[in-house]
Amino acid sequence: MRRYVIAGNWKMNMLPNEAIEFMNTLAPMVKDTKNEVIICAPFTDLFYTILSAQQTNIHVGAQNMHWEESGAYTGEVSPNMLKCINTEYVIIGHSERRQYFNETDETVNKKVKAALKHGLKPIVCVGETLEQREAGQTVDLITGQVEKGLAGLTAEDLDNVIIAYEPIWAIGTGKTATNEEANEAIKEIRNKVREEFNTDDITILYGGSCNDKNAKELFSMSDIDGGLVGGASLKAEQFEKIVNFN
Ligand code: PEP
Predict the structure, then answer these.
(1) Considering only CA atoms, which residue is closest to atom 1 of ligand 1?
(2) pLDDT band at residue 172 under the 50/70/90 scheme
């Protein structure tokens, strides 16, 4: 049966007290959903968010990590640091990390492998810029990101991997991809995964100005398994409506 996943990405927002309040408000609102609910919190909120998620059906993820276990990497957080506080998911290769922090498909691949090695489930982000879309490069670009980002993984590994297709021009802009554009791109990613890993068993989300008004239509498309939600995940009352779209 199809599994829907609704993941919130708080980005660099929320103080610990706000995180706890959000979780306490959201938990009763989503307790009956069959969808998987994930909140990806900043490092300083993670521990509080994980504690608040105990006895609920809300899963918690980080937004980034280093691939090494320890060492002279000032300011970085390792996969085992995340794992030891019971973090379950980690976003890898978000376009904001690629754009502002020089992440590449190669570092994404190292991080994905390290996450899996430590029992963390990576949410791997791919997506094209507006220029790349207009130049007709979308399919090559996103399938290339999938191929390089997931290189060296097995079909079994994919049970613990989520891919998020996030067109960069739709992130935080209020400009959503049409249902068809999002579905087509995700279909191409699915084909690529089939070609590389010989499996159809992969969860692929759409992200980019997803909100309580457009979620139902987007998630009703044939190939979209849910959403990675930025801005609309900051208010429990709005995020709840996206989680409870069905
Ligand atoms: C995101 O941060 O992954 C995202 C999709 O942001 P927004 O929903 O705000 O466009």
Answers:
(1) 230
(2) confident
